[in-house]
Amino acid sequence: MDRAIVVAAAQMGPIARSATRKDVVLRLLAALRQAHARGAELVVFPELTLTTFFPRWHLTDPAEIDAFFETEMPGPETLPLFEEARRLGVGFYLGYAELAAEEGRTRRFNTSILVDRAGRVVGKYRKVHLPGYDAPQAGRSSQHLEKYYFEPGNLGFPVWRSMGAVMGMCICNDRRWAETYRVMALQGAEMILLGYNTPDDHTGNFDSDSLTGFHHQLSVQAGAYQNSTWVVATAKAGNEEGSRMIGQSMIVAPSGQIVAMATTTDDEVITARCDLDMAALYRRTIFDFARHREPDNYRLIVERKGPVAPPQEP
Amino acid sequence: MDRAIVVAAAQMGPIARSATRKDVVLRLLAALRQAHARGAELVVFPELTLTTFFPRWHLTDPAEIDAFFETEMPGPETLPLFEEARRLGVGFYLGYAELAAEEGRTRRFNTSILVDRAGRVVGKYRKVHLPGYDAPQAGRSSQHLEKYYFEPGNLGFPVWRSMGAVMGMCICNDRRWAETYRVMALQGAEMILLGYNTPDDHTGNFDSDSLTGFHHQLSVQAGAYQNSTWVVATAKAGNEEGSRMIGQSMIVAPSGQIVAMATTTDDEVITARCDLDMAALYRRTIFDFARHREPDNYRLIVERKGPVAPPQEP
Question: What residue stretches are annotated with the CN hydrolase domain (chains A, B) (predicted)?
């Protein structure tokens, strides 16, 4: 039985602050149709796809903030994407800012959904690893305020059996944390879908910031290889409101090899045929978890959040 | 205060089955002196440095097996290495097969020790992630029988404050498992020392085996970057008794960058000056564990050894 799936990463170029949802959805529809024409059965859109990456600003007006969030999915403006995807028989991953009424209060999450080929929302993930700060930092041209706008995801790292594969999702900074992939791999994840917005001024130190693309590739390739899983990673990219965000959307095989990569920082569709059975070789040899993992030695990973170094030498 | 340390990876070319401990120690002494002459204060030797990589054979004669193991460290044949290192004021990491009398029985481990500049053994590590099999596999030209010869290490992943740094150790296959680095980073590890023997026929599938060097580099670079630590990785390399083992010994910075790399598969010393404070930038930004890790979401990593996939779709 053939267990291959043709996947597309639909990278988006910059989205201006003035862009409407309708403007953005038109671009998503164009990418969706291009991906379908190239045989894709599943399209991965970026993190916070529907607006500019607003965590770069410190906004305080509640109405202004709320305008970046979705209260329903699909809503009237995003429904055309769902309808067209259903019509074409294409599943998709979409990242957006979610405003939820839960536990008697308003909650805000950096969220992605998995939509199957029949247009049904089959999975929701809320970003666990929020980078940056919860208050503005002096001296930065762009802020990084995800901890101000969002609370950490409360859904863990679930997986779903959909479109013939065990699918997992994560978002942006999650990809730098080895735990992200491992928790999904321990649930049998065969393909991890990932959207991101990655500016090239994370630390403010050029020695490090100039490695932004390398660090992106390194983390995703290692996550794929060490967990015998496909990863489809899609950027929102380019110069967006003065912030420069890397592209380098890519599809990575369970071997860690990059099998497709975007070469622009604009709207660009890349595709690959992903053989889900390619992982089997790794899973029965080097990464046969059931034979080789030694969880008794891993306890600090859950028992400790920050590092505790041994005492200084006397 | 300067917190740099000059480190050497002392790669060893093949060691024949007929080589004596004395033969090997002479090669180690030559490498030690070369490293010292190039300013090194710490030298990392390979895994199972003192003999050929015997787990490639299925030996059954106890005396023949025991001949590959050390019952004391230093012993009469290794003492000259300790004495010369002390004389030069150079610390070292040495991997060897350890035969221990513990819990009223004979136990065998794949072990490394950390020796400080005064020649004192300050740390011992026993390999946790044993690859391969506990019985011979049909159809392989080289076996991979670490699970037959050794039991998994029973010392966890400790770290030691020595030579001005928080040092950790691991061995070979440990480097492919993200948990290895993370457990040491959660104890403040600033430098991880690693010896390996990596044949290029791990899986028997050329698609994968031809990526052996890439997988080595990917795993070590990701481990260094994602844990803001230096890694010094040293091979036993070359065509050893018909088995081809990769070289690519390397020193990797907390940025994930390779700052020194061996270009042969023979005896070769590489060095780098490692600024331990380079990690500080990463630890207070992207990898500030205390702010960014979310251990409640990681529980499966310790609760589950092998993967459990969701049920099949109906």
Answer: 5-278
Taking a C-beta distance cutoff of 8 angstroms, is the pair B100, B106 a contact? yes
**A134: which 2 tokens?**
């919860």
What percentage of chain B's residues is helix, strand, coil (to nearest 5)?
30, 30, 40
> Tokens standing for B57?
């054979």
DSSP code for B199: B
> Are the C-beta atoms of A163 and A41 separated by less than 8 Å?
yes
**DSSP letter string, B42-85:** EEE--TTTTS--GGGS----HHHHHTT-BSSSS-TTTHHHHHHH
Mind giving me the DSSP string for chain A? ---EEEEEEEEB----TT--HHHHHHHHHHHHHHHHHTT-SEEE--TTTTS--GGGS----HHHHHTT-BSSSS-TTTHHHHHHHHHHT-EEEEEEEEEEEETTEEEEEEEEEEE-TTS-EEEEEE-S---S-SS--TT-SS---HHHH-PPPSS-S-EEEETTEEEEEEEGGGGG-HHHHHHHHTTT-SEEEEEEE-BS-SSS-HHHHTTHHHHHHHHHHHHHHHTT-EEEEEEE-EEETTEEE----EEE-TTS-EEEE--SSSSEEEEEEEEGGGHHHHHHTTT-HHHH--GGGGTHHHH-SS--PPPPP-
Give per-10-residue mean pLDDT for chain B (314 aa).
Answer: 91 98 98 98 98 97 97 97 98 98 96 97 98 93 94 98 97 98 98 97 90 98 98 98 97 98 98 97 97 98 97 78
- Using DSSP's 3-state secondary structure scheme, residue B182 falls into helix
Q: What is the mean pLDDT of chain A?
A: 97
Nearest to B226 among A176, A205, A257 (CB): A176
The answer to whether B303 faces chain A, any CB pair under 8 Å, is yes
- B170: tokens are 């691991």
Q: What is the pLDDT of residues A235-254, one digit of tens each?
A: 999 999 999 999 999 999 99
Of B96, B103, B114, B116, which Cα lies nearest the Cα of B49? B96
The nearest alpha carbon in chain B to A178 belongs to B178
List Cβ neighbours of A161 (8 Å cut-off, separation of 6 or more): A167, B309, B310, B311, B312, B313
Listed by number, the residues of chain A in 126-185 with a beta carbon closer than 8 Å to a beta carbon of chain B are 128-131, 152-153, 156-157, 159-162, 166, 173, 176-179, 182-183, 185
Helix (H) or strand (E) holding B206: helix B206-209
Find out whether B179 and A181 touch, Cβ atoms under 8 Å.
Answer: no
Half-sphere exposure of A264 (CA within 13 A, CB side): 11
Note whether B192 and B233 are within 8 A (CB). no
Beta carbons of B47 and B195 less than 8 angstroms apart:
yes
Residue-range domains of chain B with CATH: 4-303 (3.60.110.10)
Of residues B157, B204, B205, the one with CA closest to residue B182: B157
Q: Rounded to two decimals, what is the model's pTM? A: 0.98
Q: A176, B288 in Cβ contact below 8 A?
A: no
* In contact, B250 and B217? CB cutoff 8 Å: yes
